[in-house]
Amino acid sequence: MRKIYNNLLFRVFCGVLIGILLGKIAPEWFYRILLTFRNLFGSFLNFSIPLIIMGLVMPSISDLGKSAGKLLLITIGIAYSFTLFSGFSTYFTAESIFPYLLKGQHISEIGERVPLAPYFSIELPPILGVMSALILSFILGIGLSLREKSILSEMIKEFGDIINWLISRAIIPILPYYIMAFFAEITFDGKVVSIITVFFKLIGVLFIMHFVLLIVQFLIAGGIARRNPFKALWRMLPAYATALGTQSSAATIPITMRQVVKMGVSERIAGFVVPLCATIHLSGSTMKITACAMALMLIEGMPFDIELFAGFIMMLGVIMIAAPGVPGGAIMASLGLLNSMLGFSEAQQTLMIALYVAMDSFGTACNVTGDGAVTLIVDKIEKS
After folding, report:
1. How far apart are CA 310 and CA 339, in angstroms?
2. What is the domain extent for residue 7?
3. Integer angstrom CA distances of residue 226 from 70, 153, 218, 379
4. 0.90 exceeded by the pTM?
5. CATH number of the domain residue 115 falls in
6. Do residues 236 and 259 lie in contact, with contact meaning Cβ atoms separated by under 8 Å?
7. Which has more confidence, 181 or 6?
């Protein structure tokens, strides 16, 4: 029972249900307590976003640079290419079907009740803007990759450890309660039916898109490595199933490596590529974030085009390299881009978190299974 409770998806699902119930029956004073909590945690989250970007991106770029070599560059190039393919294919697919799928869905116009205010609020302005934090991370990360071990390198590594602790031990455990308060608010305002409808439609569409993406990735890998793509994909199913349960790319590494070796990849290549791809290859996560962002912008009436999303997808691919291999890590790493590049408000970011976590198992499983395709290509190139 404790294992089920500790599952993030289960806790978020409970948070959504309890939030909807509280939004219908809670007295006004209790509802304002929930609003106060959501306001305080939202301010803390906004304050933490630049720190999260720096704590994830700087150590990642620094560590990749120190071990730079032909094999590393090839793996990063393939993983980033797959991530871009996932993002852009999702954009064009969503652009084609979402206007029909989400026709008539509008959140901003639903609800006639006057919003209540929290009891109090605390302003926590970020120490840096999102783009400033990202550029600073690039400069320091690349600079440190060109140096031997230094005191600054150790400090940045420890800072990264602190940020990973912040995400996994402080932010992620509180998210279900934050989402509960948010769903209580939208239920009170009369918006919950529209949002839940969007949830189920997106989950169904993205479930199908994930499998299509995996088939395309293994068709590409099979063509390059001269292997049967469907047999290779079948070999990766145990890793897919394990990722569904763990919701963590890092926790699935041993199973992924075992299945990759069974595909005929050398143990040396598997031992290098699989752990690396658990961090830098997040095609499934990119698909979810891109699709959910487009869906929310459509139902909120926010304009977008390929120029806007092209920049977003390319930057998202970079941010995904630094996403920690913990449940919900990818969406936490991308919140800054959602705000700075797409103009998402705090409420829209909360919806993104809820949507993402609801599909986190499938996205992680897609990431992990796709690692097998990347490994096949790297192994073929290495043997050529």
Report:
1. 16
2. 2-383
3. 22, 42, 11, 11
4. no
5. 1.10.3860
6. yes
7. 181
